[in-house]
Design brief:
With 150 residues, the chain is mostly helical. The protein has one domain. α2 runs parallel beside α5 and α4 packs antiparallel against α5.
């Protein structure tokens, strides 16, 4: 892989998976313990409004740079762990698109209308899906780094 594409690929993974790790493991427990629902829901809506544009860029960077590497190598010649990374990355991308389009949209509407129960429900869906994507992201990183030895 050309060094520029490798950088874009790794930077996209670091920002996306690192952001999910921070949100899940650090911000979420502190927000849940210290903030009342209206404040917590507003915080998350604002955090996602800043994080999700970065995720869109990361998804594009990872998918495009990975596709360039696959096309240059050829799907048949690509190592099996590349195929696993592609599959996991596409699943993660689909989950993100769903989060952005459905529960995040509901969260924004709920927060703007001060419908805290609906906001809590949407945030709960986002939390579960980000947790799933975090696990998939860490798994993909394991496949990427350990793939040749498996």
């Amino acid at each position: 892989m050309h060094p520029l594409f490798k950088f874009l690929h790794l930077a996209g993974v670091v920002v996306w998976v690192g952001g999910m790790f921070f949100a899940w493991m650090c911000l979420r427990p502190v927000a849940a313990a210290n903030l009342e629902p209206p404040t917590r829901l507003k915080l998350w809506a604002d955090v996602f409004a800043r994080f999700f544009p970065w995720v869109w860029g990361c998804v594009l960077a990872v998918v495009l740079s990975g596709s360039v590497a696959l096309l240059a190598t050829g799907m048949r010649q690509a190592p099996p762990h590349w195929h696993a990374m592609l599959t996991l990355g596409l699943i993660m991308s689909a989950i993100f698109v769903y989060v952005f389009m459905v529960p995040y949209g509901k969260l924004k509407i709920a927060v703007s209308g001060q419908n805290w129960p609906a906001g809590a429900k949407a945030l709960g869906q986002i939390r579960q899906l980000i947790g799933t994507n975090l696990i998939l992201g860490l798994t993909t990183m394991a496949v990427a780094t350990l793939g040749r030895g498996l």
